[in-house]
Amino acid sequence: MDKQWQEVKEAVTSTCREVLGPLKRSHKEWITAETMRKIEDRKLKKSEINNSRTRTGKAEAQKKYTSANKTVKKSIKADKKNYMDTMATEAEEAAYHGNMRDLYATIKKLSGKFSKPERPVKDKEGKSISDEAGQRKRWMEHFEELLNRPAPRDPPDIPPANGDLFINCNAPTKEEISQAIKQLRNGKAAGPDGIPAEALKADLATSVEMLYPLFFKIWEEEQVPSEWKEGYLIKLPKKGDLSACSNYRGITLLSIPGKVFNRVLLNRLKDAVDPQLRDHQAGFRKDRSCTDQIATLRIILEQSQEWNSSLYVNFIDYEKAFDSVDRESLWKLMRHHGVPEKITNIIRNSYEGLTCRVVHGCQLTDAFQVRTGVRQGCLLSPFLFLLVVDWVMKASTAQKRNGIQWTFWTQLDDLDFADDVALLSHTQQQMQEKTSTVANNSARFGLNIHKGKSKVLRTNATANTTPITLDGEALQEVDNFTYLGSIVDKQGGTDVDVRVRIGKARAAFLQLKNVWASADLSINTKLRIFNTTGKSVLLYGAETWRTTVAITRKIQTFINTCLRRILRIRWPDTISNKDLWQRTKQLSVEQDILQRRFRWIGHTLRKTTTSITRQALTWNPQGKKRRGRPRNTWRRDLEAEVKHIAYAWRQLERLAQDRSAWRALVGGLCPGRGQRHK
User: Which residue ranges does the record assign to the Reverse transcriptase domain (predicted)?
Assistant: First the structure.
């Protein structure tokens, strides 16, 4: 097995070395050879100052050094300007040819975004470690502890399915291998074997012919090459004190040919197993998105507020969820879902003897064993993790008595996106019971709920102020919460979310000030960059916002400011907003949000009638409306827009099934007239 793999590896890597050669790196690629010569000359002048023994000699040497230093600075400034001009030209060329990957790689250089050097870290006692060897040892110690969790005390007894699913258990075909290679994403770092995805794609037929015998042998022996079990762990900073190891997350670089094999397995498994998963889960699933869950939760909050219905939402946060899963229970769970034993054995054996080495300071730590969790960076990991969360939530909500009333026959217990779980209940007692049950069932799989990061939001629940507790510790109650990147509160949270979105979009816009100031980039290219960076950050989740005149004005004012800066229109020059939008080919914010909303509604209406997201569009809780003028809600916005386009809801449901007709409807939308002032 390993010998056959080494032959494949050597064939690919030797060809890469011969054709491409080694990658040459320069610390500052914009400094020319002529400038480097001047820098060396300046060093010599500096040495003359240090070696001079008389005052006259030192003064003369200092004069020469000052002149050389001015020459170096002038040369560096010229080099940097030429470099920026060249980068701008390359960005313009990439935009002209539609090469977005090269365009954004160039933008990153233009904006001055460079990775920061390694920082010193602290040991467990909080003492700073300065030497490289000590830092590598600390990183190895941290991740070895993180990736080797204690086994659960009470693992679940999961019986196998009565029969296997109809999944192909024959060895991978050449067609499957070819498809899996095509599905690889370019621009991703290679694993320990040094084989990039582009190398396999460069000659697809040859790659398939080389991998086919290897995959056949893997299938027969149910074992993978030992090098596929090795990984290089890259540290990615989160936020907080970056000298603390706990404020980093790791991503593992794995063998690309190993990913091809896993892609073949995933293509066989996902369509067969996915129908068994609960509709509550939207993470890593086809035709599901964060927007679905955000919109559903906003509607639940808004309608509960309008109908004066009590609601508890517990936002569960797991500690290192992907790294904590108990593998023995996971293999049982695969058989429970009907995954054939052949495939289960191959995946299980690929996890036996996993090792990792942490990359720190361009060097590797010693290897250490990884005994728990699913591999971050492996294509199968999201699929495997969903099986765990699905089992935990099925076991926790089997009695169907602690959720919110959803339809006449059903309750809605939770909304999930991978490990982001939002529990839903009407009363404190129901939420307390559900939280404890979820915590117990999670612990049986090795998952622990983070008590400090799990938050509770409640609305219209004034009768009982008893906090929700976990292991005797009260969970914090909050007025708003950032759910899947959008802020929600008791009224839905649009106002707060819009304010935060504008702040993030402003930061994204200012990071690209070199791009907007460049005279070598065309206005069209700058606008494309703005639409896909600043504007995409600004309007994330806009499909779920309730829109008022005040909210729309805030967003439009920010966009107009950005567009005027891109066009270099400054006071006292003036231009009307309408002319500004025409010159930049922009829709008004009102129309842009309207079209985004109806695109998402069309996508939602094409789901089955049992889909939670689709049912949310017309859901109302049991309760009684408050006295006085009703609040503006997303639902009320939608009703006004539907009335404006003169369609009945039933007509829209039928029209959405025809994608072309719905696309025409969305393209012809005008801003709704039914908006309510704040």
Answer: 217-488
| Domain carrying residue 420 | 296-315+404-479
- In this structure, are 577 and 521 located in the same domain? yes
- Report if residue 645 sits inside a domain: yes
What is the reported pLDDT for 118? Answer: 67
Q: Extract the residue ranges of the chain whose pLDDT is less than 50.
A: 672-678
Domain-ending residue, one of 479, 511, 532:
479
Strand arrangement, sheet containing 414-417 = 414-417, 420-425, 311-316, 455-459, 476-477
How far is it, in rounded angstroms, from Cα 590 to Cα 34?
54
- Residue 469: strand pairing partners: 474
Q: Give yes or no: residues 443 and 411 share one domain.
A: yes
Nearest to 177, CA basis, from 65, 262, 83:
262
DSSP 555-571: HHHHHHHHHHHHHT--T
Number of domains, the chain: 3
| Rounded Cα distance, 654 and 226, in Å | 54
In this structure, what are the phi and psi dihedrals at residue 281, rounded to the nearest 5 degrees?
Answer: -90, 125
Residue 113 is predicted with a pLDDT of 63
Q: What is the pLDDT of residue 377?
A: 86
Please give the angle made by the CA atoms of 557, 560 and 565, to the nearest 5 degrees: 130
Q: How far is CA 401 from CA 406, 430, 456, 594, 606, in A?
A: 12, 8, 20, 38, 30
pTM for the full predicted model: 0.88
